[in-house]
Amino acid sequence: MHSSFLRGSDFRVTRRGAAVAHERFFGDLRATDRVGMLAPGGIDGLGACLLLLAHVTAFYDRYRAAGEEFFAYPDYYTFQRRTPAASYSMFDVWPGHKDVPVPADAGATLDAILDRAITVLLVPDGTGVAARFAPVQMAGAKRNIRRCYAYAATGSVERPALQVACDRPEPAEWAGTVLESLPASGGAVRGHWLRVVESGAVPEQSFAEVPLERALGLIG
């Protein structure tokens, strides 16, 4: 519950050019919904950290609305194609088994996603390929996954439909813990996020809203 002090008013959400209140945008999110983020390289998932946190805050809002004390973490997961997996615990992907290692195989990755009954799927943006999965996998995906977003590792997609910003410094601090959870290495993505951490603020992030078939094509 590291982020449970955040409130919807800490976020600025813009959809298709129009500002939308956090509570309105996430009005249909249920406490039982499950967010899954595919982050093949581990730290690339930071490109969607504000959208992840906005979902986490909406989750806690459901408990706060009940007016009772609670101890709960959302059933949110990252799926990573590297070991060790980066830890997103400060973004309330906790306990650690929710950072799930998956092989570099689209079918096995989708199996891991379906096994956890993911309802909101975040995938890295890219050219993608035609989704080719077994009929039973497609049936499971269509039954469970209700919403899909594509993100960029540096936080900005080319043709965004959704922008999310947070006016607090903590997301930058927490991004630092994700970087620290892995052995130090070079690379443009890590360099970008080191600069973000040093700046003390995560810039506004943008996302594409994509249909399920497109999202599945981006799993590969």
Order of H and E elements: EEHEHEEHEHEEHHEH
Helix content: 25-40%
Low-confidence stretches: none
Strand order of the largest sheet: 2-1-8-9-7-6-3-4-5
Tell me the fraction of residues in β-strands, as a range: 15-25%
Q: Could you say which overall geometry the principal axes of the C-alpha atoms support?
A: globular
What gyration radius follows from the Cα positions, in whole Å? Answer: 16 Å
Largest sheet: 9 strands, mixed
Separation of the first and last Cα atoms: 32 Å
Total domain count: 1
Q: Write down the overall mean pLDDT.
A: 94
Task: Break the fold down into its secondary structure elements and pairings.
Layout: E1 11-15, E2 18-20, H1 22-25, E3 35-38, H2 49-66, E4 77-80, E5 99-101, H3 106-115, E6 120-124, H4 135-144, E7 147-151, E8 162-166, H5 170-180, H6 188-199, E9 205-209, H7 212-217
Parallel strand pairs: 3-4, 3-6, 4-5, 6-7
Antiparallel strand pairs: 1-2, 1-8, 7-9, 8-9
Helix pairs in contact: 3-4, 5-6
Task: Walk me through this protein's architecture.
- The protein is of the alpha/beta class.
- The protein has one domain.
- 32% of the residues lie in helices and 18% in strands.
- The chain is built from seven helices and nine strands; from the N terminus they run ββαβαββαβαββααβα.
- It has helices spanning 22-25, 49-66, 106-115, 135-144, 170-180, 188-199, 212-217, and strands spanning 11-15, 18-20, 35-38, 77-80, 99-101, 120-124, 147-151, 162-166, 205-209.
- A nine-stranded mixed sheet has the order 2-1-8-9-7-6-3-4-5, sandwiched between helices.
- It is globular and about 40 Å long.
